[in-house]
Amino acid sequence: MVLQAGQLAGVISGIVSGGEMSQYRSAFALLLLAILLRAALGYLREWSGVRASLGVRRRMRTELLAKLDRLGPGYCHSRQTGDLSTLLLEQVEALDGYFSRYLPQMWLSVTLPLLILLFILPLNWAVALIFLLTAPLVPLFMALVGMKAAAANRRNFQALANISAYFLDLVQGVATLKLFQRSRGEARVLGQVSEAFRLRTMEVLRLAFLSSAVLEFFASVSIALTAVYLGFSFLGELSFGAWQGPITLYQALFILLLAPEFYLPLRELGTHYHAKQEAMAASERLKALLDETEHAVKGGDLVLEPGPVEIEFRDLGLTYPGREQPVLKGLNLRLAAGERVAIRGPSGAGKSSLMNLLLGFYPLNKGELLVNRRPLAQLERDGWLQAIAWVSQQTTLFAGTLRDNLTLARADASDEELMQACVDAHVVEFLDRLPAGLDTEVGETGHGLSGGQIQRIALARAFLKDAPLLLLDEPTANLDAQSESLVLDALARLSQGRTVLILTHREAAQLNADRVLELVDGDLVAVESGRVS
Predict the structure, then answer these.
(1) What percentage of the chain exceeds 70 in pLDDT?
(2) Residue 314: what are its φ and ψ, rounded to 5°?
(3) In the CATH hierarchy, which fold is given to the domain comprising 55-290?
């Protein structure tokens, strides 16, 4: 930059003074070299900033996903999916401008003006004084406008999280809205929410453009002040500033060429300042997630031995975080290895909470949960989960092939093992009707398959996993009579030789359990001949 200004000022002042163009060939060569170097280094700066930002965002998403894994499904279930998605996607993406542009520009805005002053001060102290007095005005007004932009960004991110959660709820419930003829009304509400978000976004943009306008104004005034001083010096009206004699044409041109460069880093910093405020607003919510207390059971180093599993609850109690009323209190239960126990009770009695404790989603508030006479908290977490086959009332299928969804249970399963699991779970009865068999693409959440078919795929996973502990949470809920019959037949074969815990309302789904218990007021009581004893 300094080389470019020096060579250009030398060429112009020499030609104006009567010099020949041929005398300045070396100056033109240096000028061209300086221009090419600036372009190359500018590209390198942009490239390195983008690379740094990409690395930071990738690491941030990795840390957030690891945190959600440690928090467990219990925490994720209590949060809106749209809100978490916005956090992982949009708000992490908001960090881009800070690391790729603002942070490098902050260092340039400190080093480049100081570098220019080192060259200006030996030529003219008055211009150096003008630069020193006017330079702080740029970051001062940048900060004043930036504080308003930060508040607007916080409101905007909250509005984005709300609209994302609302839109996802609408998409997932569109069939129900159509049935109750509420789709048009919800479409109008969505339009109003979207318009409110648009207005908030425009508010942020308005403040960003206001910041740029203010910075351009003060930079222009400062450059104009320098030009006026140099003009009056040439006219002889001002005789101060130069260290030796009157100011020369070369010095004036050199100063005027460097004056815009002096303020340019500060102006660009102001342009990127709203990126910092956006990143700060996003980071508050990201930090809040990273600081969340981890309630899920972390597990220990003890490896679960292969073979049958024995479960025992001793005086077990559970109160969910943030609530005062306990869900389970003083519960005692022992499941011997290979025993089948069915637990029934009304919705909200705490049946699913019992399952969540076994899966390690929540810690115990009191009592003990023993697996093969060892506390669950001492068992290695992944090894314990590998010993569990879980079939819930809401099976999740992911976008991909049917084969991909089945091999979630066992990644190394052969085609023969996959087909045997499909036979055991009655999946083969509709497999031949699928266009590509096991390689048929399955839509998100099983789009294109019926509820009974999805439940049979869940059973095929359980057969494929061949785990010693089988947890069944309302496995026949929302199924028609034919699908229920097929699922129950598969479950009867799957439960042979395994420790089974069944949560259900239906007597048919109790699978000839060895014991049937009723969950009443947070405790278990035996059921005899259909009556609570």
Answers:
(1) 94
(2) -120, 115
(3) ABC transporter transmembrane region fold (1.20.1560)
